[in-house]
Amino acid sequence: MSTNRGIAYIKPGVVEVQDIGYPKLALGDRKCNHGVILKVVSTNICGSDQHMVRGRTTAPEGLILGHEITGIVIEKGSDVEFMNIGDLVSVPFNIACGRCRNCKEQQTGICENVNEARPGAAYGYVDMGGWIGGQSEYVMVPYADFNLLKIPNKDQAMEKIRDLTLLSDILPTGYHGAVTAGVKPGAIVYVAGAGPVGLACAASCHLLGAAVVIVGDMIPERLAQARSFGCETVDLRKDATLAEQIEEIVGVPEVDCTVDCVGFEARGHGASAGVEQPATVLNAAMEVTRAGGGIGIPGLYVTGDPGAKTEAAKIGNLSIRIGLGWAKSHHFHTGQCPVMHYNRNLMQAILHNKIKIADAVNVQVISLDDGPKGYADFDKGAAKKFVIDPHGMIH
What we know:
Blueprint: E1 4-11, E2 14-20, E3 26-27, E4 30-31, E5 36-44, H1 47-53, E6 69-76, E7 88-91, H2 101-104, E8 138-141, H3 144-147, E9 149-150, H4 154-158, H5 161-164, H6 170-181, E10 188-192, H7 196-207, E11 212-217, H8 220-227, E12 232-235, H9 242-250, E13 255-260, H10 280-288, E14 289-297, H11 311-314, H12 322-327, E15 331-334, H13 343-351, H14 357-361, E16 363-366, H15 371-379, E17 385-388
Parallel strand pairs: 10-11, 10-13, 11-12, 13-14, 14-15, 16-17
Antiparallel strand pairs: 1-2, 3-4, 5-6, 5-8, 5-17, 6-7, 7-9
Helix pairs in contact: 6-7
């Protein structure tokens, strides 16, 4: 009988590699004829996973983690017509049926049929439908013809797998944040957060033609990583305000667009650095974005945060200065990235050397057994994107 192993969330601060069930082409008691089973080639540790592992969500003990998946089709259901055994595929982290109103409008992040609790589902994530995650050796993907992106020329693609693995989430998510904020050629952009999504967003801003990309963070190594591919940086630990630091770079204390790549575990700036203030980034974005500018918010905000400092924040109720944003006629865009809206074009950008995203986010490949250490290092602020290689296929 085939075996499988995966990374399970045990309790706050603890994950471990466990023997888990080999995936079946089934949804409960019902045969999943539209699904495939993948041999996982690469699966990445995401900042969103880290929120769960820190105990900042209602994730249940034993949840198999992982929503960033690239794999090879090794089994397919009878209804799968356009994916073949042996295909190398990227799996959008959004699980989508392809049949509901939202899917037909390309809003695959809020599919109505894959999560009984609310629109939207993802692999291995809290409140996202109970789907088994892909930080494992094998995983089942439903609605395969709709969900999967086939990567052409498998042998050539494996040479770029460190880049292509980022198509499942952080590259489209960072790009989505930039697009929805209104980044275009010649724009001056502020990206809050130099974690992997923030760095992917910054690289996406360059791809979109931004004139200046300014990245803010409190971790020197992450700021250095942003500078390594042409970004300007601001150190949010400094006493100088964000606006003052931006003015030092571009001559005025404002930007055209801001992208929040931090989310609800935001920390205060300056003298308050290190103190959790979940609305800090959103309020700072409204302060420094010019009148008529846009704010993209791919950073995660949750409806349930048991580790929040206030009762209001525990249900996602934050002290946002919306009056300022209204007065400046800002536009805001929130929510999950609909990965499928972007991933094919971004794949072409990777394959044709228009973006070197693995270098930008500093990919480090680790084994499945080293996954728990990867989580621990990432939690300490490592300026790396950890990519798990369960079968030793990445060379």
